[in-house]
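Trying the structure run again after the queue cleared.
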Amino acid sequence: MEERFETIHQKKIVVAMSGGVDSSVAAALLQRQGAQVQGVFMALAQPDLVEQLRWVRSVADFLKIPLTVVDLAEAFQREVVDYFCASYFAGKTPNPCMICNRAIKFGRLLDEAGKTLGAELFATGHYARISGDRTSGYRLRQGLDPKKDQSYFLGLLTQAQLGRICFPLGGFRKEEVYRLAVEFGLAFRQTAESQDICFLKAELSSLPAHTKLIPPGCKAELSSLPAHTKLIPPGGKAELGSLPDFMPSRVQTKLIPSGCKNQPVPEFLAAHSPGQARPGPMRTLQGQELGRHEGIHRYTIGQRRGLGLPDVTPWYVAGLDPEQNAVVVGKDADLWQQEALLPAVHWLSGQPPALPWVGEVKIRSRHPACQAEITRHEDGVRLIFAQPQRAVTPGQFAVFYEGEEVIGCGEIAK
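Done. Tokens:
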């Protein structure tokens, strides 16, 4: 059964809306299929919260669907932002989207959609697919568009969550979604992709003066848009005093702190966790000190830029030692490894397969899948790669695939 579209007629489906083309088209597609569609918007820590809310409201008004704003700022701060910062200071490179999808978007927001809004299904604009049923089990599969597939970021979802979700765009390619937006007469703007760090992205008011608009109902041809056109709602930058009256009063006081907009990650981390950034040694794998660093939160495995270590061949970050507050550097040959350790693994079916298991693994969202074997280890499970992999990074997730199906995932420890 593919996305349960044959059974959605007259079902109440709540769509998580961001104002971007994907969620807007997802809502319009479900509406065309005969579903009773309602929009919901998560108020988190977005730097462009005011503008984004104005835009989402304009899309909902155009589709003639109700829109509810859910204040999840405190939960997002506690479960995503705090995790994000703590990981960097522990020498890891986190994946906040994985945690947000499990705990916030398909956790608290999904529960809110069901309990408060009466949703029978919850939809988002993710490029992924769900098949199966309660009896046989639900299966998470890659989106049809390999360039936009977001199944990696959904690897922590459970059977209970998968059974309440649908992804209307899973069977489309991105260019088809843009054409559908034009066909529906939807306004849309370029927004950060789901895998980008939403609480650090640029505010809309900082867009260049030549930014163009497509108002709702406009039938402009896609070919007439400049390659890097960004779209913003009429009215431009909103002042705090002009916050829409449908916003919860608590959200109006939970905007990201002044000075955090457009910050690079290291500066955001230092502002969020004052006193944790400490200078320390920069050492080779053999223990020779080559220089000093300004805090391990500024580095990730495989990093070359910003080390300040001139040599005949480049130096790279080969490891981070939070106990010694040291950045360990090496040459390119030192970045390749045959194995990785995962202390815990989440299996989407709820049951682990027989081990050892052999399949494809992605060790980062944009990393090509590679063949690997999973075996038991006293500290969790061990990944053994068929070919050595470069820059295996603690804090990132290894996601396992059997064909196009996501089988499970786990956070890389080393």
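The chain has seven helices and 18 strands. Worth checking whether this holds up in the mutant runs.
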